[in-house]
Amino acid sequence: MAINLRRIRHVKKMTQEELADSAGLSVRYIGAIERADVSASVTVLGRIAEALGVEATDLIKRTAVHPHRAR
């Protein structure tokens, strides 16, 4: 989730502060989630997804960190 959250937030051009304000969470908590220091509850996941304008599943789906390239 940490990778997806950071990626989506950057795509949406939102700062951690803007996301935290929109989701009703603290900036420190958003930062901790992005660093994978803490896990978000389902409720918090929903609030973050809503603030970002995405589906909650977009935040938790697996993404390839280092995709293999066909040669």
TrEMBL record:
Keyword tRNA processing: no
Entry keywords, A to Z: DNA-binding, Transcription, Transcription regulation
UniProt keyword Transcription, yes or no: yes
Protein known as: Transcriptional regulator with XRE-family HTH domain
Every HTH cro/C1-type domain range: 5-59
A Pfam short name: HTH_3
